[in-house]
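Homework help board

Subject: predicted structure for assignment chain

Our instructor gave us this sequence and asked us to write out the predicted structure in token form, then describe one feature. I got the tokens but I'm not sure how to describe them. Can anyone check?
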Amino acid sequence: MPPSVLEQVWRESWGRLLGQLMARYGRADLVEDALAEAFAEAAEQWSRSGTPDNPGGWIRTVAGRRVLDARRRERTARRYAHLLVDDGVRPGPDPAAGQDWGAEGVDERLPLLFMSTHPALSEEVRPALALRFVLGVPTADIARLFLVPQATMAARLTRAKARVHRSGIPFTVPARARWPERVEDVARAIYLAFTAGYAPSGGEVVVRTAPAGEAVRLAQLAADLLPGRPVLEALAALLELQHARRDSRMDAEGRPVRLVEQDRGRWHQVEIDAGLRRLTALSPTGGLAEELRLQALIAAFHNTAARPADTDWAAIARTYARLETITDSPIVRLNRSVAVGEVSGPMAGLAVLRAASDRLPGHHRVALVRAELLRRDGQSAAAQEAYAEAIAACPAGAEREHIRGRLAEMRPAADGPSDGAD
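My token output:
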């Protein structure tokens, strides 16, 4: 059997199959393991006997049998329950009862999405559980996304599945009156999963493109499953626009490439167009939806500039100002200082930067932005001092080497590299 057949079933049907099993058995801790085991059995059997006429149905049947086997083992274990120490945790619903998870015709992946991002679960595990439950992303890929060992992520997911059962977190679509708060839970979880793919850790700036792309796919699915929700549409637009630049963010040696130096011919125009369609359909609103919309708008200004010189920095500066009003974030102000520096000159950018530096003491990005603005203003000595400060504050890794490179460009070749900032 060609591997692509099973891979296609996994990618296109995992969430639906898991949802169907959840609707029947109501046990996240059993059905997810059973479904994974059914796929493993399919990989072995189909290679020998060929692909069945209904691959999804075959896998669902095998997974169902695995769940029943697990329940029989549980019943056997309960016969000896008097020998076990009660952990004080109230069990969840009867696994044999099934659950009413919503109106007929609702996509099975929708209650999975709400269940995996339930506020009873810790914030750190929600995005991982959503990727695993809704899309079937392998645990190893999720571990790479969040920069933890595979065993650690497997343990987190196992504990989360047990928590779902023990806490009685329902496999259901919440009442519409609760949708605004729950949809934001969904959006925050997906956004966290995506940013983990691009956020540096320990000084390393490693773009984890494939698993970050799964977060984009999850955002698109959430927006499609819950149409008309601005927070999900804005999220999908932002992630599509940001992820479209993935192939130009790093050079061949794994070093970050500044936006102004990126090869725009490597940006994915089809994805940019998709993000722009979502974005242009949105109107200003409030809360998280507006935060995401404004971030997407900033990304759109960059993505639609054919050349760096064509970038509408004035519009970007205005958008950052609106975003700062909503978030009061020093990181937003840091980014705004760059835009203001492009529009009104480096000294104006430095004036904006001062407030951010007060709230981000010792942050290497503050020193780096200061260095870039001073460099543009012709203050070479002060810029070099700021670069050295940024190097000293930045953890060892690709980003610090990038800053070293920026500093080396300013120094005469005869001077050689300086170690004083280490």
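Reply (TA_rk): Your tokens look well-formed. For the description, you could write something like this. Residues 244 and 270 are 8 Å apart (CA to CA). That's the kind of observation they're looking for.
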